[in-house]
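Retro notes, item 3 of 5
We never archived the inputs for the magnesium ion complex last cycle. Fixing that now. Sequence and ligand:
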Amino acid sequence: MMELATAAEQNCGITWIVLNNQALGWPQYIQGLEGQATAGTEFKVSPDFAKLAETQGCVGLRVSKPEEIEGALTRALRANRKGRPALVEFRIAKHDYPAQFTRYHQEIWGLGLPGKAAKRRKATGGGG
Ligand SMILES: Cc1ncc(C[n+]2csc(CCOP(=O)(O)OP(=O)(O)O)c2C)c(N)n1
Ligand SMILES: [Mg+2]
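Structure as it came back at the time:
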């Protein structure tokens, strides 16, 4: 996170996009696919990234609805043009994966299919 202050110090015209789903979404998705408990992958508390950016001299913005996207990006780019870095935090859905994503895990990784995943884990020494 200290790069925020450095970027402000150096007047960098850059924007960070943070996609915050308050989860380690992919691992949680795999836990679900494997019928495991979804342990340690979901967080009730996460930093307010926009505020965090503000405290370090950057412009911090938060997007919670699609109609806020354009305004936030316009503001971020306007700040960038003046040499002020910006961070835009998008609050996004936890799992928004297409059906092909499940097929990929099943066919390539053997996840969610009894026996197959365990065999693969043994062969490769893990995953992720
Ligand atoms: C350097 C490294 N460490 C650990 C992992 C294992 N890993 C894969 S996805 C993931 C969690 C990613 O969480 P996030 O960035 O919030 O993305 P999301 O899955 O929610 O889209 C982890 C720890 C990895 N791929 N690379
Ligand atoms: Mg995440």
